[in-house]
């Protein structure tokens, strides 16, 4: 007998104490979102919660975005910046740093030499201060937002912002590789006290961008 | 469950040593009290906590009730998404599968994400025996591995170490395993984290094989979820060419939507955060992004035996948040090592004796490692009634009876060492069923009260070592009631 059959057989015998019953969906008495905030307030809450977990939050509009990105890279002193294949070219139009395009042949070691990365995102969650990446062309492979030490993530507000975790899951496609990011890399492993900055990007800058007038 | 802690003394003996270690008690008190207050605040932020807790318990119960179906569905979804599913009935089989998968890649080292399941089966030791070195990459696991130590907490395995001890371990041991600790390393947590970053960077960049567990597996989509903080998980899950995940069969949930409950309750319960810094979700393999080969090893190792126990099976709801450890007065004083298992604290006291059986001295003693205060049940995000299971397991230890071990029904003998307790309970049962005998006995006890010793002789001696024997009243209650008509007219 294979271990598969053995385990499934054990499960069935273990459950023999009662009828399996109909497999009905569970009752979900919890809220779809907490509170009833308007659009602007939801974006404010996102900014507040991102900052609470030490992400650096900036707000701008589409016209000013290239200058903000250029300034953030210059202030950081980044000579090179990774860009995913589908990043809107105008976002980088004012930046001086050398653009490094991610290719499949790039090794992790090569990525480690690049100082910054700029991406979009799939959705942002206000209640938890979370941005979610799903590997779309403006976000790229998972590794490009992991190896460099500085991540600039652009969130289009308000259209990419939801209030809650349940609303975010509704918008996401499970077939895509997903990375949920809430602030920069951190640990609670020393005396259960939170310290920022371990293996992931130690600086996370989130740019909330509204459509220009 | 494997014999990682074979030969452990029973809990009271191991705990006696621990409670006299002042550094350990100080470290544990500091850490557990810090997290306790923070958790309470994080939980208070969501107004529907009770409903989330209830839904979490129901989702897990539903899954367990139909576990065979969801495991088969999960296997189909993972396979359809490009993964390969393996089934392991016990620790040895799981270790063998992983070792063979690693050997097939031609590699001799793996990077590991923190995982309770691989701790449970002793994977690192098994790989070492096959000439494969496993590098732990979670900060606390790294501290344990470098310090040749044992884990003492589910979430923070090095909770028994303070910053000064961690500094010393890094300065002394890092050079043995790779990049040495920076010169002049101090004990500030930020510097210690930086030292770990530098030490492990090289290993991540060259790694070809990653090994992980998972917090959740979604049956309908085949998605696996790893919840973490440092980014070491992301490194191990995305940079290597081959990923092997070893996951307990109880970690499956039916639907994608079910994650909305646990992604709200788990971070708040474990690290007291609204959301942990990083959560990775992957479904099989993705072209051009992440590992090209993905293997999922589904682990039984005592879980189906636990499932067969109608009272005890609720322990399989556990999402390994460790909130029960952080509030437990026994854990706070005795520390994690005394529990003799990778699962310490209240959840360990009900999980280890079920996964491993109650044959060893340590496992038979674990259901007693509690004052039954119930704080663990209060904070549990999936409402496991830990005190109920503890009492149930005490009964099993004392009385014996039929249980399932390794899928087969066996009858346990009553444990040795509980003879006095059993005799006392039998005597009490006999007397309480016979009012006449009870009355005579009570009157006799009242009349001879001046002759009663302060401490019990024989097996009762230990009990009265720390307690006074209650004084017997001069007259039994029933006699007083009859004589005074229930105390009417203020009669004494």
TrEMBL record, chain B:
Domain called 4Fe-4S ferredoxin-type: residue spans: 315-384
Region Disordered, annotated ranges: 442-492
KW Metal-binding (keyword) present: yes
Basic and acidic residues bias: start-end ranges: 476-492
InterPro entries given in the database record: 4Fe4S_Fe-S-bd, 4Fe4S_Fe_S_CS, FTHF_cligase-like_sf, Helical_ferredxn, LUD_dom, LutB/LldF, LutB_C, NagB/RpiA_transferase-like
Signal peptide positions on this chain: none
UniProtKB keywords: 4Fe-4S, Electron transport, Iron, Iron-sulfur, Metal-binding, Repeat, Transport
Superkingdom of the organism of origin: Bacteria
LUD domain ranges (all copies): 73-285
PANTHER family registered for this protein in UniProt: LACTATE UTILIZATION PROTEIN B (PTHR47153:SF2)
Protein name: LutB/LldF family L-lactate oxidation iron-sulfur protein
Protein species of origin: Streptomyces fuscus
